[in-house]
Specification:
16 strands, globular, mainly beta, four-stranded antiparallel β-sheet, single chain, 1 helix, 3% helix, five-stranded antiparallel β-sheet
Length: 229
Amino acid sequence: MTLEVAVDGKRVPFEVRGAELRQPSDAPGGRPESLASVPFLDDGVTPDAAAKDGIATARVSVPARRKSFDGKLQVRADVTTASEGGEVVFDMAATSAPPAIFTGVVRETIENGSLAFYAGIRVAVAGRYDFVGRVYDSQNRAMALLTANGSLDTSAREVRLNLCGQLLREANIAGPWELRDIEGLRFAEVTGDIERIPMPTWNGPHRTQVYPLEKFAGPASKKSEPQAP
């Protein structure tokens, strides 16, 4: 996790006077249980990217006594600047095991003029899932964000992500292309609220074959207007 404070879009110096990982109480008005202190540092030591750059970083680990915990957690930090102070709270959901995992196997096929990717998956917990994948061109430029969603049960073996053929034709983007960074989320009810439980991200990449752009669907043809006699 990272913390930074900005005024009018510019970072300003700040201090974290205390931060903790805590478990909110299920009882109305109940006090959260403090689980561990969380040090936010701006010293350039991993996980912090650079020393004294105005961004403080912390690595948050769930204590051993909560390794099998499923539910809500929070990180609370007391932050002060030269002119004001306040409390920052990061809400999150913990799960003892991922609801599903990607197998790392991806196949591709041309369907209805578009390029369909089928990402292998193993589902441990049935439910509604959302997926996002990113496609890059042969020059390593981001070119498309692919999404999919729906209900999956434990028999599901693949997730379909569709790359629009019209996009490839209109932008004249030659292959091969790479599918990377597929993320998945399961929606679950946790203590009365809907939480998004993440799957481990599959970074890939999967590099496609080289296809002639003519294989993909082009722009929809315009109907000709009737001519006056």
